[in-house]
Amino acid sequence: MKVTEHLAQAKDTIVSFEILPPTKGKSIASIYDHLNPLMEFNPAFINVTYHRAEMISKKRVDGSFEMVEIRKRPGTVGICAALMNKYKVEAIPHLICGGFSKTETENALIDLDFLGIKNVLALRGDAAKGEGYFKSDPQGHAFAEDLVRQIVDLNNGHYMEEEIKDGAKTDFCIGVAGYPEKHFEAPNMDTDIAYLKRKIDLGGNYITTQLFYNNAHYFTYVNKCRAAGISVPIIPGLKPLTNQKQLTAVPRAFHVEIPIELSKEIMRTKNDADSEKVGTEWLLQQCRDLLKNGEKVLHFYTLGKPGVIYDVLKQLF
Ligand code: FAD
Questions:
Q1: Which residues, in sequence order, are bridge partners of residue 47?
Q2: Which of 54, 51, 136 is nearest to 94 (CA)?
Q3: From 59-68, 100-109, 174-183, the region with the lowest mean pLDDT
Q4: Given this model, what pLDDT does residue 84 score?
Q5: Rounded to the nearest whole angstrom, what is the distance from the C-alpha of residue 207 to the centroid of ligand 1?
Q6: DSSP SS3 for 257
Q7: Full-model pTM
Q8: Ligand 1 contacts CB of residue 235 (under 6 A)
Q9: Separation of CA 29 and ligand 1 centre (Å)
Q10: How far is ligand 1, taken at its centre, from the CA of residue 305, in Å?
């Protein structure tokens, strides 16, 4: 079922999760161990991130160095198929522009369609490791909106090869990313929202947001999106803070603010277990406030901390 159908039909709060593929060498059992307890809360869908290949320098036997391409977290599509099969849940693969030609994207979409996957999250992706800014594949897309356009083309049966007439139509529900505290490259919030609106006008069906720790940012963002004419569902993304290192690591990675009350409380803790308690309580209060304000979906970035999400959900429902 499509995400938009889940949202339209939901009578109660919808819960969803995002997971990362395991690092290469680990088995899919690590994903099941991660998700098994959380399945108690009947997630409507589970997002699976995509991680582009990176170039690393490797020493040859003669002592010289060569650059080799490695992919640390392969398996996004396989995991989606496995989750759908094992848990009978909707799985949403993330698709990125970075590192993909348009032809490779089209072929990936055909694979997803054949697997019965009905939902995708269309993203640009970040700069490759070691590159200062995002560079698209020479034959690929520069922005997520171009990827949205290609998915919509395929939904209309238009393939890249012009010889294909009456091509089979795919039927993807397309999610796109939004940033309650602005995408870090955007010159200002209004410009960022104008580009977000383009993604929606081109065929994006809903928005999943970057994580945030201050609900006020999210509510302001939703209001601004609505004022800009964006009427599709907006799904809030939530991630617990669980240790002191994240006070700097999270803003660096995700370009979000950590409220002073939360950072002070985490700084006062003596160990990770105490930090986790503070982060759990903060997330619980964030969720309660979102629900009180009429939010219908809570989307959790589980990122290695399923226990915290479990505790929060157990207290909520
Ligand atoms: P875009 O919508 O293309 O926007 C990128 C920037 O360009 C913004 O500043 C925007 O304002 C600007 N812009 C947009 N269109 C135009 C235009 N036509 N002309 C000029 N400027 C424009 N990354 C991964 O690698 N893998 C993942 O699995 C992944 N999952 C994510 C899930 C969520 C919910 C979120 C919020 C992010 C995720 N990311 C992931 C990170 C994402 O790839 C980065 O944040 C990336 O920098 C931007 O992606 P985007 O799709 O928002 O890009």
A1: 18, 92
A2: 51
A3: 59-68
A4: 98
A5: 12
A6: coil
A7: 0.97
A8: no
A9: 30
A10: 24
Euclidean distance between CA atoms 230 and 193, whole angstroms:
9
CB 177 less than 6 A from any atom of ligand 1: yes
Question: Is there an atom of ligand 1 within 6 Å of 300 CB?
Answer: no
From the CB of 49, is ligand 1 less than 6 Å away?
A: yes
pLDDT tens readout for residues 254-288: 999 999 999 999 999 999 999 999 999 999 999 99
- Residue 3 predicted with pLDDT over 90: yes
- Output the CA 66–ligand 1 centroid distance in Å: 31
Q: CB of 54 closer than 6 A to ligand 1?
A: no
Determine the pLDDT at residue 13.
96
Q: In the numeric block, which tokens belong to residue 21? A: 């593929």
Is pLDDT at 304 greater than 80 in this prediction? Answer: no
**Domains of the chain as residue ranges with CATH:** 3-316 (3.20.20.220)
- Distance, CA of 136 to CA of 97 (rounded, Å): 7
Specify the ligand 1 atom closest to the Cα of 184.
Answer: 9
* CB-based contact 179:209 (threshold 8 Å): yes
List the structure tokens of 252: 């660096």
CA-to-CA dists, residue 262 to 51, 182, 211, 268, 279, angstroms: 30, 21, 15, 10, 8
288 half-sphere exposure, CB direction, 13 A CA radius: 10
Cβ burial 299-310 (10 Å sphere, 16+ → b, else e): bbbbbebbbbbb
Measured by CA distance, the residue closest to atom 28 of ligand 1 is 49
Q: Which range among 25-29, 61-65, 86-90 shows the weakest confidence by mean pLDDT?
A: 61-65
